[in-house]
Amino acid sequence: MSTPFDEMYDDQGRVRPHYKEFDDWLTRQADGHIAHKRAEAELIFRRIGITFAVYGDEKGTERTIPFDQVPRIIPAKEWIVLEDGLKQRVKALNMFLHDIYHDEKILKAGLIPKEQIYNNSQYRPEMRFVDVPRNIYAHIAGIDIIRAGQGEYYVLEDNLRVPSGVSYMVENRKMMMRLFPALFERHRIAPVEHYPDLLLECLKTAIHSNSKKPNVVVLTPGMFNSAYFEHSYLAQQMGVELVEGKDLFVKNEQVFMRTTQGPQLVDVIYRRIDDDYLDPLSLRVDSTLGIPGILNAYRAGNVGIANAIGTGIADDKSIYPYVPKMIEFYLNEKPILQNVPTYQCRIKADLQYTLANLKDLVVKETHGAGGYGMLIGPLATVAEIENFRKYLIDHPEKYIAQPTLALSTCPTFVESGVAPRHIDLRPLVLSGKQIKMVQGGLTRVALKEGSLVVNSSQGGGTKDTWVLES
Amino acid sequence: MLSRTADCLYWMARYNERAENTARMLDVAYQTSLMPQPVEFMHESWRKLLNVSLLEKLFESKYSIYNRENILQFMIFDEDNPSSIVCCLNAARVNARIIRGSIPSEVWETQNLSWLNLEQFLPENSSQDPSAFFEWVKYRCHLFRGVVFGTMLSNEALHFMELGTYLERADNTARILKAKYRTQNQQSQTSNKQSSLFKIDNTSETFDFYHWVSLLRSVSAFEIFRHTYSDQITPERIVELLVFNPQLPRSLNKCVNQLLQLITLLKNSKSKEIERLIGKLKSELDYSTIDDIYSEGLDQFIQRFLEKINHIADEFSSTYLIPLSG
Q: What is the mean pLDDT of chain A?
């Protein structure tokens, strides 16, 4: 790996222009001031209860996600390109979803092999010819962006099922303003706290009817889910009910919630549960999280579900390599944002290349998420690589491989002081009447030296993300 | 409001109230236990304390002797005892966490911070005297109540919490009265026997005085008693105060009166029966006298009262909390 791109310093070690003001401020802080503020932040996060449950931890310990005080700053001129690219990408993804559940133009044109769709467990035949409101499937999309090389932006993943993290984007901003108000006087930082308003506006459009005051709810798997804080946070911020599957029932193909005053009609469900668990009648029979009969109510058009059932197919890593082609196919435009070069192990030549270069590649499960079930070649031991090789030969169709990109780094507070750590970015794209975004996103940072895994479940932290209006 | 949300609000309030009342009761019992008295008597009064809360069996399965250390351990920290203060605060916090989106963040944070700060009192972190801990519990519960009334809308959510509070309080006051009252009869006899041992005159009377004061203190009613009666403390007056007084925040009458008002605010299509139950209990308290209680026997009276409160709680659950479908 070459020296990664640093967000704050250029290769001569000079502070980049958009970080000048911050650097100036930082050098004038007294020793220990930041550490003091950091401890304060931890206490506040605990008191507010911004915590997540660690899976596999039987005691149900709640942890806070480490919050770093050096912001990730994106200059406006870069953001404009990013935003255009993201909107373009999500628009094409929604068109793709509508297409494969209707006319299959892209399959007929031979751009994507049919079996890539039909054999994918994320493809839902139940959704064939079902019309969803406004033809939108991915109302909420979290697109993971990385920077590599000389600072080029790449799309690493399209998260279209139940992307999380947005509560941290908002809470990190509030925390930064609370800890360092002076910084906000000195910078013109695009606000992000109105995200829940945009989300509610977007969700209200996810129905067929023209109800003036649609009853929107957030559906959570429950308090033991690692993102429970976010579910309840968004429900509270939008002023809607947070429901579990058992709070809902279906009667006459309509969805109701059980209230103290009797059943109440539900119009839109912002679900934070995967397709598989939504309807034990149609999807996964052993699910205790879902609502029996909801699929029928959905197909009948009586309830909106965001994101739509069947959206997962476009989020799958085996479909990811085709997204640039989709943009050209549906929009007749050149993709603004690039994909990371990807080897599809189901293709023989790609598999051979992958097997021959395991020590340099990152190999990922096509259905995986959360940083589980992946191999990072350059950081893996020989034994780990050989172990992985076996899986790969047995089930090549389950994997894709990508070059190990030197993710950009950002100065970060660590025990020994301030040191560069790898980061990524997850902006959220909302598709309703229009495609909207707040200017910013969640920056995740790998706190371990040299680590490229930014997931909070794997020891990652977060940063406030500033889009600087110049 | 979701039935499940109402359920959590109700239990969050009940557990807070129980934590507070347990702390009150233990605080008074602890201080009483510091007074000179025979060991057997002390053990017996600790046993009675658990007996009225139906916790005797559980205690005996874990501890061999009723003494101060064991009881405090059991009632404060024991995670197997669902009524221990630690369990109550945990349960209150779990319920609050589930519905944190439906309550003001200040309410949630207050509850959460009580739980986080509890750590400093755990036996491994502290050897502080129990009274300081009881003070702290009472303080946190006062704070919680203050934040609730200071930040919540006067709507269903608040009413469900209040309903939980008053049901729990009615139950707790009745149990305290039962525990203390039964002890009293035996106590006079026991301490009579002991008077020669301590070689103090009037031990029985003195001891009784402290006993009644402690009962009143455990429901914050000592000063109120003084204010209301300006006269000698007698068992009859205490019963009258704790059962009938319509103004005392912890009297049975006050609690039931609050329940009646709350249930009127929470009316739904299925609430006829619970309105009837509460109304009936209320009129019984309104139209009974202290003589009626004594002719029935205080014990029986309290026992019947507890059963009715229990019945009301069950009816409440099936009316509001068990999801209404179809």
A: 91
Residues contacting B41, CB < 8 A, separation 6+: B187, B190, B191, B194
Question: What integer is the mean pLDDT of A178-188?
Answer: 92
Is CATH 3.40.190.10 the classification given to domain A341-403?
no
A47 contacts B112? CB cut-off 8 A: yes
Tokens, residue A282: 């149609």
pLDDT given for residue B197 in this prediction: 41
- Once rounded to an integer, what is the mean pLDDT over residues B27-31? 87
Which residues of B lie closer than 8 Å to A, measured between beta carbons? 1-6, 94, 97-102, 105, 108-109, 112-113, 116, 156, 160, 266, 268-269, 320-321, 323-326
- Contact (Cβ atoms closer than 8 angstroms) between residue B130 and residue B30: yes
Tell me the pLDDT tens digit for each residue of A212-261. 789 999 999 998 888 899 999 999 999 999 999 999 999 999 999 999 98
Can you say whether residue A225 is alpha, beta or left, with left for phi > 0 and alpha for psi between -120 and 50 degrees? beta
Sheet holding A361-365, edge to edge: A343-344, A399-403, A361-365, A375-376
Whole-number pLDDT of residue B82: 92
- Which pair of tokens denotes residue B11? 């239990």
Distances (CA, A) of B177 to A170, A277, A334, B170, B191: 51, 51, 81, 11, 20
**pLDDT (tens digit per residue) in B111-142:** 999 999 998 888 777 666 888 999 999 999 99
Q: What is the DSSP string of A25-79?
A: HHHTSPTTHHHHHHHHHHHHHHHHT--EEPTT-TT--EEPPPEEEEEEEEEHHHH
For A322, other C-beta atoms within 10 Å of its C-beta total: 20
This prediction has a pTM of 0.87
Whole-angstrom Cα distance, residue B264 to residue B258? 10
Question: Is a pLDDT exceeding 60 seen at residue B299?
Answer: yes
CB nearest B100 (choices: A46, A49, A246):
A49
The distance of Cα A290 from the centroid of its chain, to the nearest Å, equals 22
ipTM above 0.90, yes or no: no
In a 3-state reduction of DSSP, which class is residue A156? strand
Give the residue from B67, B96, B62 showing the smallest Cα distance to B79.
B62
Q: Could you give the residue range(s) of every CATH 3.30.1490.270 domain in chain A?
A: 341-403
Q: With an 8 Å Cβ cutoff, are A260 and B268 in contact?
A: yes
Distance of CA A118 to CAs A100, A283, B145, Å? 10, 16, 58
Q: Which helix (H) or strand (E) is A214 found in, with range? A: none
Rounded to whole angstroms, the Cα distance separating B83 from B92 reads 12
* pLDDT tens per residue across span A61-83: 778 889 999 999 999 999 999 99
By C-alpha distance, the chain B residue nearest A44 is B109
pLDDT digits (tens, 9 = 90+) for B206-229: 667 777 888 898 898 999 999 999
